Amino acid sequence: MKICINGQIFDLGKARIDPRDRGLTLGDGLYETISIKRGNPRRLEMHLSRLRDGAAVLNILLLNSDTQIEDMIMSTLKENNVIEGVVRLTLTRGPGERGLMPPKIITPTLMISAIASSPSTGAVNVILSKKTRRNEHSPLSAIKSTNTLDNFIARAEAQASGANDALLLNTANHLAEGTTANVFLLVDGGLITPPISDGALPGIMRGEVIRLARAEERTVNTNTLMRASEIFMTSALGLRPVASVDGQLVGDGKAGLITQMLAARL
User: Fold this and answer.
1) Rounded to 5 degrees, what are φ and ψ at 157?
2) Does domain 124-265 sit in CATH 3.20.10.10?
3) Structure pTM?
4) Which of 84, 111, 175, 198 has the fewest CB atoms nearer than 10 Å to its CB?
């Protein structure tokens, strides 16, 4: 495996970042996960736009143009011989001395990795996380921060209970999202998804589904969640149906008609 760091390709065993890098010491960074199909990154412009939006929120300097980043991605794909798979972009503020406040001179780190893989498409069983919540009031809820410990806690909770994933409620007990995906529900014949204001990440695939299916952004309480006839989760890597929530079947426990239709189109 080869890694691209600030435009240079390294063998995995020789790739290094500064041990003072704030992405390592403080989680001071952002990331994007991008699907690769037939050797090309899907929806790259949208991913890079979101990366820049997140960098603006954190005031992280992104030195490279979109064209330069695309060139780095394509080089990384070529070096790893990835035709179908996943690319991850990680942007950090770069090295800094001890303390919360960043150095006056910022030297950001941009790291790109690529692996060959096939998307997971099977139905998942989920729980409602009881150990953590999504803070819809934090500006971090709207960006892909490298600090994902709440998501990890919820996913570990799910796996410990025998489920595949967890859904996160926000501080008002409303549905926000999954640990790595947005959530859509078919309720009373209409497709709905939690709004950004409730803590949902502005997912790239989420936006595509809203556009294609004319889904409504609407606050979702747990009663509405448990009434849904179909539930599916979306990420940059695709769409997965939800078979059950807290042990209760969603519909017949299989992908519904709307879910199947959207999965075929996306």
Assistant:
1) -60, -45
2) yes
3) 0.94
4) 84
